Amino acid sequence: MTDHDAIVFRSADPFADVTGLSTSDTGASAQRSSNIIHIRIQQRNGKKTLTTVQGIGDEFDKKRLLREFKKQFACNGTVVEHQEYGEVIQLQGDQRTNVSQFLKKIGICQDDQVKVHGF
């Protein structure tokens, strides 16, 4: 098996850009990246997608936020415990723009604190 084959068959890590700090990065940039809220989309079966929200501070109740997301966006979702990133909110469907606008509207973050990932 060549190196190219290993790259093709390796599953994509949706959180790879958070941990991909170079050796020249300082502690200040790592501190800054923890303040950024990452909103990602993942492809499921066929047309089905999953939106994940990672990086919301511990001072916010994620279950309460999830309840509002579900009510506002008419979708289902859950809060999962990730071993490296803590609690991550998962929503059904492509809710990237809805979530980013909602978080800005209620004042949890500013424009420069939200990073939307996707296709």
From TrEMBL:
Domain (SUI1): residue spans on this chain: 37-107
Keywords: Acetylation, Phosphoprotein, Protein biosynthesis
Pfam families: SUI1 (PF01253)
Family, similarity comment: Belongs to the SUI1 family.
InterPro entries: SUI1 (IPR001950), SUI1_dom_sf (IPR036877), SUI1_euk (IPR005874)
Protein name: SUI1 domain-containing protein
NCBIfam families cross-referenced by the UniProt entry: SUI1_MOF2
Domain of life: Eukaryota
GO annotation terms (biological process): regulation of gene expression; regulation of primary metabolic process
GO function term, MF aspect, one: translation initiation factor activity
Gene source species: Adineta steineri
Entry annotated with the keyword Ion transport: no
